Amino acid sequence: MPDLYIDGSWRGALDERTREIRCPADGSRVGVVDEAGGKDTVEAIAAARRAFDEGPWPTTPAADRGDLLLRVADLLVRDKDALARAESLDTGKRLVESEYDIDDIANCFRYFGRQATAEAGRVVETGTPSVDSRVVYEPVGVCALITPWNYPLLQTAWKVAPALAAGNTFVLKPSELTPHTAIRLMRLLEEAGVPPGVANLVLGAGPEAGAPLADHPDVDLVSFTGGLATGRALMAAAAGTVKKVALELGGKNPNIVFADADFETAVDMALTAVFLHSGQVCSAGARLLVEDGLHDRLVDEIVRRASRIRLGGPFDERAQTGPLISAAHREKVEAYVARGLAEGAVLRCGGERPTGPGLDDGFYYPPTVLDECSDDMSVVREESFGPVLTVERFSGEAEAVRLANDTIYGLAGAVFSTDEAKAQRVAARLRIGTVWINDFHPYVPQAEWGGYKQSGSGRELGPSGLAEYRETKHIWRNTDPSPQGWFD
Ligand code: NAD
């Protein structure tokens, strides 16, 4: 069956190109998918434009749109096993993590299904009896949704669900490395009854299949999750037609551990913060800031436990984390570590490709700890997006805040302390979108997600996540019109 979904039909690419997908855990062939070029994407944009301009989706009652999203949530639960398996084969991540993701994805659809009717608009009191005035929300139009490979279906759900809830039409372009769950999602949308042209899928590389999404005049909004360099380029490309642009970009997230932190919790969470999914998490706590008095004990224990983390493929039940996404990405992480060592960081564990049964054919890289780092090093300033922890020391609250904020990014981070007032003071001063206190990584669809500074220019999830996909219109009605005589 062909893999591009345009105007309610499945078809191949106009130039018949395809791409082979291989599992990063062992190089095995996962499948061959159709690979769109720019012309396919332009057709998808035209379909989305027609479906928006001619309806009926944008004017379908919000309650019906909400119901459809709730149906999609049920279908996701029904197909959980197949979806999780497909996600793990494309990404190499452990099956249990993919299963966890599918539950989150269903919750996301449920949340936006209910939000569709939560806020319909408001009446504005003008103080003039002969006027009624109200503010209404309308869909933005045709949305380009561009997503990365690390949480392929989750990042897609964060965009597709609110875009549909608000009454938009869209063209989705997932990462070329991880297309399979996007294909499955489109089949579920079709089954749930999304009208033709409302939801369109193009697969393929960014510069070819993706580029028209940023500069085509018929696209009204670009919602992008991915790397900083791509985000900057998309923002510039979208400027020509003044599109709405929502960016969710990278992070270099501080994990601040005060000497008074609960030791076992701090160790455990520091490991999860950075080594979950082998560090391929936008909110990874890749930058450990540890208070002087605790440094040696904390880092020794992190190193001891990081060295024992078991690597393996998606279906290896003993594995604690998996491979990196590609050979190119592993080389990027290796180069980053080499640069850190050249800059004076001290390698405490990891740093060399693992070998052995089950590992030789995958893109594995071990949990790596670089100690004695400082905030002028490139390893501290740039995102590696791999299992690499840099360690810096600080002394006192003010220095912790100064170091944590000394970055161009501002996505997420954490504070570990048993002093509640201190933790709250520090949290308040961090210039980042999500702060965890004595925890790392959890999120809920009801609360906004997004970055300060160069981590992004928009919000996903929560009420502001829906607002990204809505225009706000003020309608003023004069109920007793009469000539004013200004130009008599
Ligand atoms: P990437 O920027 O390389 O690619 C992301 C998407 O953009 C892919 O679909 C790609 O094909 C597409 N793309 C690339 N060039 C394009 C172009 N010229 N026009 C249109 N589309 C184009 O990012 P990646 O390597 O897939 O993902 C990793 C990055 O994503 C990391 O930096 C990570 O921090 C970030 N990320 C951020 C969040 C968040 O919530 N802030 C979540 C997940 C990932």
The geometry reads as globular
Largest sheet strand order: 14-15-16-13-12-17-18
Biggest sheet layout: 7 strands, mixed
Mean pLDDT: 97
Strand content: 15-25%
Report low-confidence residues grouped into runs of 5 or more. none
| Estimated structural class | alpha/beta
Radius of gyration, CA atoms, in whole angstroms: 24 Å
Number of helices: 15
Helix content: 25-40%
The number of distinct β-strands equals 19
Explain the overall architecture.
The chain is α/β, with parallel strands linked by helices and 488 residues long. The chain is 38% helix and 19% strand. It is built from 15 helices and 19 strands. It has helices at 38-54, 62-78, 80-91, 95-115, 152-165, 180-192, 206-215, 228-239, 263-275, 295-306, 327-342, 378-381, 397-405, 420-429, 462-467, and strands spanning 4-6, 9-11, 18-22, 29-34, 121-124, 131-139, 142-146, 169-173, 199-201, 221-225, 244-248, 254-257, 287-291, 346-349, 368-371, 388-394, 412-416, 434-437, 470-478. The strands form 5 sheets. The protein has a 7-stranded mixed sheet with strand order 14-15-16-13-12-17-18, with helices on both faces. Strands 9-8-7-10-11 form a 5-stranded parallel sheet, with helices on both faces. Helix 4 (95-115) packs parallel to helix 5 and helix 9 (263-275) packs across helix 10. The relative contact order is 0.13. The mean pLDDT is 97. Bound molecules: nicotinamide-adenine-dinucleotide (NAD). Nicotinamide-adenine-dinucleotide is lined by residues 146-150, 155, 173-176, 205-207, 210-211, 213-214, 225-227, 230, 233-234, 248-251, 282, 383, 385, 411, 451, 456.
